[in-house]
Amino acid sequence: MAGSGRGRGRASFTFNIEAIGFAKGAALPDVVCKPPPPFPSTDNKPVPLKTGEDEDYMLALKQDLRGTMKKMPYFLAVEEDHEAIERYRKKYQDSEKEHAAWTPDWRRLPREMKPKKKTKKGAKPKKAKSSEPKSNLDVLKKIE
After folding, report:
1. Residues annotated as region Disordered (predicted)?
2. How many Cα atoms within 13 Å fall on the side-chain side of residue 19?
3. pLDDT tens digits for 71-101?
């Protein structure tokens, strides 16, 4: 029973090491204990950018499209705060204004996007107890 564990006895491989190129009894290569280089070698250099009339025309078209998109009423501009230090109080005052500023028209949006009010699961409505105190005579008549 003592020798039935995995750590006892001769070490055996679960695969044939001769199939991967090592002869039986030959020393295996040393383990490499150093980290990989921080950056991979760049054997292939990037291709230089194309220059010419066609590329200049496409660049002008792209810039014109971006300018047109920024002029549209649907463009949401990012408001940048120019203060170096953000104040704690101001951060929360601005967030309240943002939430109050936009109220969506839920008729135009799908129902799945509308937030739902959470209800407690398993909470049953309590039955209203009768406020009239029952007299002993009524109870006795019910028993009979």
Report:
1. 91-144
2. 4
3. 988 888 777 766 666 677 766 765 555 555 6
